[in-house]
Amino acid sequence: MLDRKRSAISWIDVLWLAFVIGLALLPPIDEIHKQLILLAFGVFQFFEGRLIAWSPQRGRAYTVVIKILLATLLLDHTGEIGINSSYYPIYYVPVITAAIYYGVVGTLVWTSIASLAYLSLLIPALQEYVLTPEAAAYLAIRVLFFFLAAILINSFAVENRKQVKRYQELSETLEETNRQLQRAEAEARRSERLAALGQLSAGLAHEIRNPLGVIKGSAEMLTKKLQTVQPVESELASYISSEVNRLNGLVARFLDFARPQNLQLRPVQVPEIVDHALESVQSQMPNARVKVEREYAAGLPEILADQQLCEQIFVNLILNAFQAMENQEGALRVSIGPDISKGTRGVAVTVEDTGPGVPPELREQIFNPFVTSKKDGVGLGLSIVAKIIDDHRGWIRLDPGSNHGARFLVFLPAKPDV
Q: Smallest Cα–Cα separation from 144: which of 184, 174, 115?
């Protein structure tokens, strides 16, 4: 069946209407049944598309059957003997319709049915007349031309369907290529921003660390001297020391983000890394009401990875999921299976939670530095995760279809076969 979009009145409908009006103006003009049948042809043409849209499979059959019946009625009312009616070419209408909607076999079947409907008009004629060999040959020629028209139209229709299918496949390929280019451009822009920001962060972190060390040392000395003499001032000095420790932790995260990674690559199994990450997060949040579901495929290939850094990837993702479901009961689903990305064999990991999800306005920038939906977050966790995965020549994405909760997809290439 040809998939086509129909407007309210297409140019085909206009031509068809002109054709019906032309037939109506030809003799016998005063035959009311002929005019009603032609009117039915015209009206049905406008509703044919709706009928097929309503029932694609049965609608095609209904369309051909109705046109065969109308053609038979038209011949029966346009001549003394229906088989001799000069309107017999009207049977080309159902024949061509079948050729457009069906394949070769369906076209031949429906053309045979239309031919039999036409020849059925012989039954009343043979009651009064004798079928001569010349008349039989004449009818056979007409029927053969029905089949010739059906075969020709069907060949064009089949070729058109093939062309449409090729264009659709090409369009889908181009769309997918365009999406890949957009992702590559986004990743390239992100890498450029990360490189520039990394250099800035490294210099800034080193400059901040020196005065922080002085402040912390001074605060600790004040705490010791004032501990017995002035306890209130000693407590305030201890606050300074604790806040310096917190700032030192933040500076350390900046340095982790900016420092080039020295990967210690070795063959590892991803499920082992993920299980260690799950245990680490569950020990940090023992009271979390999160049900963990694991779905690991068998026979997974090994990956070449720095185990400690890879564990940091999944600790961040799983910890984010636990924190998103901290005040509610939730479920964390971790799936691991083999996958192929851009011709590279590897392992795909899906981390999916039932939390509130990522706000739509942050989805495109979620892996950029300093982008976070947490009130006390810095926005470096996922940036560091993306950087580690990039260093392992993999990729990470937030599934755009995850409307409820967040679903992160991670791909890590498999160890090359030796």
A: 115
Q: What is the reported pTM?
A: 0.49
Q: Cα–Cα distance between 372 and 361 in angstroms, integer?
A: 11
Element (H, E) at 315: helix 307-324
What per-residue confidence (pLDDT) applies to 181?
Answer: 86
Q: Closest by alpha carbon to 412, among 384, 386, 379, 380?
A: 386
Distance CA 210, CA 297 (A): 49
Note the pLDDT of residue 191.
Answer: 67
CA–CA gap between residue 124 and residue 190 (Å, rounded): 83
List residues bridging with 337 in a β-sheet.
348
pLDDT digits (tens, 9 = 90+) for 329-364: 889 999 999 999 888 999 999 999 988 888 888 887
Omega before 28 cis (within 30°)?
A: yes
Residue 325: the pLDDT is 86
What is the chain's mean pLDDT, rounded? Answer: 83
> How high is the pLDDT of residue 327?
77
Could you tell me where the beta strands, DSSP code E, fall in 227-382?
Answer: 266-268, 290-296, 303-305, 330-341, 344-353
**Count of positions (residues) in the chain:** 418
Distance of CA 381 to the CA centre of its chain: 29
The residue whose two tokens read 């998103």 is 324
Beta bridge partner(s), residue 50: none
pLDDT at 149: 92
Q: What's the burial of 276, exposed, middle or buried (CB within 10 Å: 0-12/13-18/19+)?
A: middle
pLDDT of residue 376: 63
Residue 150's closest CA among 87, 103, 83, 86? 103
* DSSP letter, residue 82: G
Residues of the chain where predicted confidence (pLDDT) is lower than 50: 1-7
Task: Indicate the DSSP class of residue 414.
Answer: B
Question: Distance between alpha carbon 313 and the CA centroid of its chain, in Å?
Answer: 27
CA separation for the pair 376, 60 (Å, rounded) = 63
With a CB cutoff of 8 Å and minimum separation 6, the contacts of 391 are: 261, 263, 309
DSSP three-state, residue 55: coil
